[in-house]
Amino acid sequence: MPGSHPPLSNCLAARRRAGGFTLVEVLVAVIVVAVGLLGVAKLQAVGLSGSKNGRTRALAALQAESLAASITALPAFWAAAPREYTLEGAQVFLTGATAALVPPLDCGTTACAENDMALYDLQRWAAGMDAQFPGYQAQVACDRSSPRECTLRLSWNERVVQARTTPAASSAAVSRQSFVLHLMP
């Protein structure tokens, strides 16, 4: 019939379809978005950690290169006999010894013999490393071969955020990193 209204049941069904979202649908959407944001936050933490660790490793390589330059600058000292030193904290030791070596002079202000200058360089390098990398350890060893070869082994701790961990173990872990440099003074 023209001008008559549709049945009431059709109107109620149309109104239900156009009525919007239910509370359950909204809660499910919020949970899905929250889980996605948590994943993005974890990825950002891992990315920042990787960037910081890359900077740390580059700095360690520069520090190793600076010690290599000191060794190369004093070839007579490093060629005199097999030399092996352990550097920890701000101290220098002959490998296997318990007493730290101390440079007899401040070679920054006084002219020094090559032996004193080498020890002074090692001491200053160790102090600089201790400031940048607490808990580091380094060994410098030169052999008797011809041509002479020296090896610098450097290790340090760095904090790493791991991408795949359980919630209880999601805090930053400590990883021991190492760097080896071979040179011929």
From TrEMBL:
Entry annotated with the keyword ATP-binding: no
Name of this chain's protein: Type IV pilus modification protein PilV
Positions of transmembrane segments: 20-41
Gene: pilV
Keyword Heme attached: no
Xref: InterPro entries: N_methyl_site, Pilus_4_PilV
Pfam families referenced in this protein's UniProt entry, alphabetically: N_methyl
Source species, domain of life: Bacteria
Keywords: Membrane, Transmembrane, Transmembrane helix
